[in-house]
Structure formats: C-alpha cells, structure tokens
Amino acid sequence: MKINCIGILTSGGDAPGMNAAIRAVTRSAIYNGMTVKGIYRGYKGLLSGEISEFKTNNVSNIIQQGGTILKTARSAEFREPEGRKIAYETMQRENIDALVVIGGDGSLTGARIFAQEYNIPIVGLPGTIDNDLFGTDTTIGYDTALNTIMDAVDKIRDTATSHDRLFFIEVMGRDAGFLALNGALASGAEAAIIPEIWTEVDQLEALIEHGFRKTKNSSIVLVAESEVTGGAMGMAERVKQKYPQYDVRVTILGHLQRGGSPTATDRILASRMGAAAIDALMEDQRNVMIGIQNDQIVYVPFSKAIKNDKPINRDLLNTLRILSI
Ligand code: ATP
Q1: Tens-place pLDDT, residues 92-143
Q2: CATH number of the structural domain 5-141+262-307
Q3: 175 lines ligand 1 (CB under 6 A)
C-alpha cells in the first residue's frame, strides 16, 4: 500500500527528545513525498480531531526544546473499542494512511491493538525517560533524565557532606531501576535500591551490612519510585525505626526529571529513530517499534517490545557496591 499521508502523535508521559523525534519524522516524511499531519494530545486528539498539517517550518527550532509541541495526554476512551472506532473514522476523514506513535509501553500497547483492529500501518518510537522498553538499548529521553539526576545528586551531595547525613533520593522509573542504578553510578552514590531485585534480597539490610557509613560520614542512596520498594519515604521510615542513630533525609526529584533541553545523545537518537520510522513505513513494515541495539537501528515487533521485561545489567550493581567502599 502506498502511504501518502502520515499522522504523528506523542502519548503518555512526555520525555525530552520527543520534539527532536517529531522534527525528524516530519522532515523525513516530507522529503519522501508524504504529507504530514500533527495530531495533538495523543490518542485524545485522534478522537476529537485536533489535527493540523505540518510543513517543514512547523518543526523549526524545536530540536533543543524539552516536552512535546504536540502535547501529550492519556485517553481512557481509546482503551475501549468504541473510542478506537471514532479514532479510525477521524483517520479516514483526514485521509491519514499510517501513524507514527511516540510514547511508552501503554501507548505502544494501544497502537498494537488499533493496528490489528483496523489493519493500519503503525510504527512506534520509544519515548520514555524510564528506559523500560524491551528490544532497544535506550529510549528517547532516558539520557537527558539521567543527566538531570546526576546534576541534582551532585548538588545534594554538597549539603549531605556538610551535615553528615544519609540521603534517600527518589528517582522515576516506575517498575524499572535503570534511572536509579545508572544515576547512582554516574553521581558516585553509595547504593541504588531497585525493584528488579526487590524480592531476592533486602537491599537496605544488605547496604547496612556492607558497612556503609563505616568509612564515610554521609551517604547517598538512589531509590527507584515503585510500589514494591516503597520509595524513598518507605526506606527512610525503616531506617528511622531500626537505626535511629542515622540523620536521614529524603528528596523526591519528581517532575524536574522530565524537563529540560535534551542531551546530544537524545537528540541524535530521536533524529535517527524518527527518520527510521519513515524508512520502516516505506519498507512496508507494520506493527514495529524502532529500537537501537549496539548503535544499529532495529525493528522490534510491538508484541516483543511491550510484553518482554527488559533485563537490567546486574553486574552494574556489583560495580556500584565495589566503588562505594
Ligand atoms: P509512560 O511510560 O511515560 O507512562 P505510556 O505510553 O506507558 O507512557 P500510558 O498512560 O500507559 O503511558 O498510555 C498512554 C495511552 O495509551 C493511554 O492513555 C491510552 O489511551 C493508551 N493505551 C494504553 N494501554 C492501552 C490498551 N491496553 N488499549 C488501548 N489503549 C491503551
């Protein structure tokens, strides 16, 4: 099927680098003779018809901006067949032949169902700071968030050291510990508490047994936000009760991790992936997410990207432990 017009949307949580991806998809599509329509507010805009045509200059001067010019939203209606029917009708009315969806695993799950129901070509781009999509070494936004965390922890360390304190710093990641683990390595934190190994070992006890604070007066522990770990607050409560001698503080980094100008790594990744999305559509690929593995662009079937859990490199935990003595 020849694709004349593509629709592009960003969905779920925003991530730095989404704009660079929008720019790349738009320009690459136009370069290849396609018309581009920007769909605002994710699937919500596909239902309400909040759509406008994008020319090359609509994506000028956005590569350096965080957030997403297309806005993003969550749409409960799109989860229902009736909602997706309305979305399909919008596509027909707007003459959109194919979609490029930039978002996390929820957004790609929606894309997969929609593509199957209506036989629409859809290509996904992994846009999430959490880095929790299988089949790609990194996701768009992850590197920027990691750098933001590193900068924040550097600042907290100054005050932690001045006061001899134990800091628990909570970072995002939902059920994935990539930001916590690599954030800890990058900032020289003493430990990371991550959901992936939560049920196997009591990481807090292990940390204390390992002798943290024996040689240091202050410590910084990065904790992945997650119901299973109880987050930084949960950790602090436990320490206060069991080890009252420690002067404990909690910082929850929150939404500042999502913002800011994307790093060079994220801009390049988004640009490559955005261009690859158009290549994939022209090659008649369907239902795939664009991934990157060993610096090579790959096509990952939605089913794999969504269903498989992305493994965390456990050697890094050991490296962190060794380097924190
Ligand atoms: P992040 O990882 O940053 O949170 P996400 O893409 O996982 O991003 P979600 O809120 O899970 O964010 O999903 C975004 C949207 O995708 C939902 O609001 C919904 O419209 C659609 N979606 C998610 N799951 C499904 C599903 N099972 N069926 C249909 N649509 C879905």
Answers
A1: 999 999 999 999 999 999 999 999 999 999 999 999 999 999 999 999 999 9
A2: 3.40.50.450
A3: no
